[in-house]
Design goal:
This protein is α+β, with helices and mostly antiparallel strands and about 80 residues long. It has 2 helices and 3 strands; from the N terminus they run βαβαβ. The protein has a 3-stranded antiparallel beta sheet, with helices on one face.
């Protein structure tokens, strides 16, 4: 069984209001010096079959990510 990690982040040119809210909260809590935060998503897939890298990329691009506004990386973690 393999573990696949898909990290999804907003594209650099897309505004991230959740990240901006986190920066503001950190400052209010006394954590000065944090200039920017980008909030994303992480998916962990336990694969009990033999999926190719192309199939994993397709899963990430077509199911887990809105590719218009998000970028993703797929990492295969050996079990």
């Amino acid at each position: 069984m393999a573990r696949i990690v898909v990290d999804v982040m907003p594209k650099a040119e897309i505004l991230d209001p959740q990240g901006k809210a986190i920066v503001g909260a950190l400052d209010r809590l006394g954590f000065a010096g944090v200039a920017d935060v980008r909030q994303g998503k992480r998916f962990e897939l336990e694969v009990d079959g033999d999926l190719s890298d192309d199939q994993l990329e397709k899963i990430a691009a077509e199911v887990l990510t809105n590719t218009v506004i998000e970028d993703f990386t797929v990492t295969r973690v050996d079990a």
